[in-house]
Every structure is written in structure tokens, then in C-alpha cells.
Amino acid sequence: MADQAYTGSLPLRAHGRTTKASPSDVRRLNRSLIFNLLFPASRYSRAQLGRMTGLSRVAVSDVVAGMLDEGLIRENGHVSPVAGKGKRAMLLSVDTTRLRIISIDLAQPHLVQGALTDLLGNPLQHMESALGPDVRVDADTIVQLVDQLTADLDMGSLVGIGVAVPGVVRGGVVSESTALGWRDVDLKTVLETRFTVPVTIADNVMCTMLTERFFGQAGPNLVFVKIGHGIGSATLINDVPVIGEQHAGGEIGHISPDPEHGPLCPCGKRGCMERVISAVVLRERMIGADETTRTAIIREAGEYFASAMAMPVGLLDISDVCVYGPADVVNDTFLEAAQRRLDAMTLSKFHDRASIRRCQCGAEATLRGAAVVVVLHHLEEE
């Protein structure tokens, strides 16, 4: 099985099955190997890809030809031969000109955002639907937004639709979303029936983390926390997302570090993180406060956050904690207080310093990550 050999890291794939691989499985794996080496912005020749993957020249040529025809990659420039003689090799890169993705973000209160993107998640068209304070998001709202984004689109170029959802997702079904008021909503089937393209439903924090991983500063090991209306997290271990047995990995908003004396939460417990350091709660506490008091509130929130992060950092031996949130909450005061507390709780002779930093990927990070999820799922299909 020489044409399967690969010793590098395969970004963001789930653990594979142990059954014997069929020819189509091998081809799919080879396609993923090559595409992931090029994604998002690398350029390699066919010979370089062969050396990096261990695949034979015939296998590389076969897979590359199929990806060129499909529109996943393109020939993009030449590399000069080492000795200065002979034919210059053609370089390959991700093709951003032909295939398109629809991304939908449901994680923002009273707002549904959508974008038409290329394979790198770069928005080519943006639309949004603002909802009244008493209006719930439903499938019809999403269908209407996708209809608008595909109105002038050649549907043959559409790879799929990616939807970022705040909540627990299993197989395209939103099992539970407190923010949306949804339970057991089969959004995947609704959208696939209407638009006849593959649909991927994913946790919104996971989507935002993928943007940080591919286009930000993150490496293959990361704890990513999103602070907003609620609090959620996602984790990468050697570039494998931690999903959890119940597909609820990262649902930290209702973990309570102070179940006896903390504020009462609608879930019935006391001291849940969402009731202590979410952006909504902190902003409410800072209304009418002077600057000294506001600073103290944010500093206390940073310390509380670090206390919660100390356990996963120590347990998983991760040195990168990235926080995504509004600048009035996740700012220098918050980060400095969090770093001091984390250092005090985790530094040791055998554990290097774990850093807490702010995500710099911008307001459309979740939309872009939803597009990345579509690309990764597309690679797993024949």
C-alpha cells in the first residue's frame, strides 16, 4: 500500500475507521492529503507533493488531474529546476475562482448572517436578516437567505452550504440550542431537500476556531473560547477536534466553578460561567459604573476565566488559549489578569507557560469557518 504512505499531520480529520480500505477510500484519502498540503495558501509541484506524501508519481498525477477537473486546485506558476536546466515544474494551489460555498452564521442575537464565499471562505457576497427582539430564527428565515445568495449563482459551482449553530449538533440535527430555542431540529434535511446540495451543520465555536487555525496564529493544539451572549469552547489535539461522546465537547457555558454561592442561572444551577463572565452579564454590571469599577469588573472576569481554563490546560498539556470576544470585554485588562492567574495555577518545572491571547480574525470569522467545514467534508466524499 505504498500509495497511502504519509508521515505528516493531516489537518482536522476525525479518527479513521480500522476496516480495510477500498480503492475509493484510498483515492479519497490521497485527495485529502494533497489538498491539505496546499490549503490554504501553499504552492507545490507534483514532484514536491509526491515527496511530501510518499505517493507514487502515477498516484499524484491521477489525483491532481481529478482535482483540477473538479475545480479544487489550479496550476499557478512555475518553479525553476535546481540545476538551472530542464523543464520548469508547474506549481499547484487551491483554486478560488470556480467553486463556491454558502455560509450561514446563526450565533448572533437577533441577526442571521450569510455569505457566498470561495474555497478559502473569502466572502464574495454578504447578506443578513435582522430579527425583532421577540422573533425566533426558524428554517424559513435561513431558506430565504440562501435563496437570495443563490439567486444569480450557477448551482453547478456550489460545493455545499455550511451553517454555524450555537448548540449541540449530531449528524446535521440541532439536538439542543438554548440560544435559538431549538430542540431536535433537522436543519440539514430541510436545506438539502430545498437546494439539493450537501449541507453541513456545525457548532459555531468550532467554525470560528477553524478560522483561527487556518488563517490566524494557532497551531495543532489549541483551546479556543468564544465569549459573547453565551460562552462556548472548542479544542484541537494534534489537529483533531474534540467532539465528545454526546457531541457536546466545548459546552462550558453551564459548567459552574461556584455552584454554592454563584448567581442563579436559568438552567437551575448557580455560578455557571455564562452567568458570571459572558459579555451580556459583564456589560450589565458595568452600566453606570466609573472607570475604576469597570476595570475591576473586567479584571475579576479575567481571573475567573483563567481559573476555569487551568484544568484543561494542565490536563491536556496545551500551551495556547485563544479567546474570541468583544473588545470591551476581552481586552488588555482581561488578558493580563487572566495570564497572571493562569501562570500562578499552572506553571511548574514540567509544564511550560501557557499563553492566553485574543483572536484577531475579525467579525466574519464564524462565517469563514463554516465555509472551511464544508470544504473539509467535501474532501471526504467521493
Key phrases:
3 domains; globular; Nucleotidyltransferase, domain 5; 382 residues; five-stranded mixed sheet; WH-like_DNA-bd_sf; 16 strands; alpha/beta; Arc Repressor Mutant, subunit A
* Poorly predicted parts: 1-11, 13-18
Q: Structural class, from helix and strand content?
A: alpha/beta
Number of domains: 3
**Largest sheet at a glance?**
5 strands, mixed
Cα separation of the termini: 20 Å
Mean pLDDT: 90
Beta content comes to 15-25%
What is the CATH third-level topology name of the largest domain? Answer: Nucleotidyltransferase, domain 5
In short:
It comes from Bifidobacterium callitrichos. The chain is of the alpha/beta class and 382 residues long.
Describe the structure.
- By secondary structure, this protein is α/β, with parallel strands linked by helices.
- It folds into 3 domains: 2-94, Arc Repressor Mutant, subunit A, CATH 1.10.10.10; 100-207 and 365-379, 2-Layer Sandwich (Nucleotidyltransferase, domain 5); 217-358, ATPase, nucleotide binding domain (Nucleotidyltransferase, domain 5).
- Helices cover 35% and strands 22% of the residues.
- The protein has helices spanning 23-38, 46-53, 57-70, 139-149, 187-195, 204-215, 279-286, 291-316, 332-346, 365-379, and strands at residues 44-45, 73-79, 89-94, 100-105, 111-117, 123-130, 158-165, 168-170, 173-177, 182-185, 199-203, 222-227, 231-237, 240-241, 320-324, 355-358.
- Strand 13 and strand 14 (240-241) form a beta hairpin.
- The radius of gyration is 23 Å and the shape is globular.
- The two termini are 20 Å apart.
